[in-house]
Fold this sequence. Notes:
Blueprint: H1 2-20, E1 27-35, H2 37-43, E2 61-69, E3 73-78, H3 97-100, E4 106-110, E5 115-122, E6 125-132, E7 139-147, E8 150-159, E9 163-170, E10 188-194, E11 199-207, E12 222-225, H4 227-238, H5 246-252
Parallel strand pairs: 6-12
Antiparallel strand pairs: 1-2, 1-11, 2-3, 3-4, 4-5, 5-6, 7-8, 8-9, 9-10, 10-11
Amino acid sequence: MLFYKSYLFLLVFCLPFTVKAQFYARGEITYQRTYNLKLALQLEERYKNFKEYAKNLPDDIKAYHTLHFNGQKSDYYFLQDSVKEDASENRLINFLPIKRVAFQNQVWTDFKQHTQKALKKIFETNFLITDSLPEYQWKIEDDIRTIAGYPCRKAITTIDDSVVVVAFYTDQIMVSGGPESFNGLQGMILGLAIPRLYTTWFATKVSIVEPDFKSPDIPKKTEKVDRKDYLKGLKKATSSWWGNTDYLIWMSVL
């Protein structure tokens, strides 16, 4: 009898956790991208001439993207309707690099073929970058946090050898994807932070539905390149610019 009661207690105790942990391989995710403008204005030398205008600017700039996915592919789109034109006193924001460098990225990933296409606008030029999936060397850590209702484990990698990228992924969504070009973890990335770029991406909504994939809409005047030529062209174009242009490269390759 004692054994039976102990077994029943364990069964009842564990049941809620068993039922709660469900696993998915398709759906739609909305990400909020936040650029901490206030902190960038305080710390970045390139913004020194804008500091007197800071009181008229918001603390951060928000934008939204949506990711449709299943086990074979995903598409990542900028939500144009989610960002309104800035008020007249904040029009300066439209001239900052954050609004002019890879702000409205679209990314199409084929997990089966291990390929990726990304449409990016750098100032006035559109680029369609087609290449294999970028590979990131992730270091998994023990930290856990909940994002959009999912437990997510922390992972860290770098881009351009030194720029730290912090990701939070959930293995309850069994697709190795995430915002922008990021991938390669044992589940979906729901949170992403790049401190050096003052930018974060966090899922605000996860819907387990059949994904509504969209056909790519590529502007007629678009330069088609692979990742190597894209990066080479960026570095050449910015080599004669005044000041430190590394941040432009980092923002452009995400």
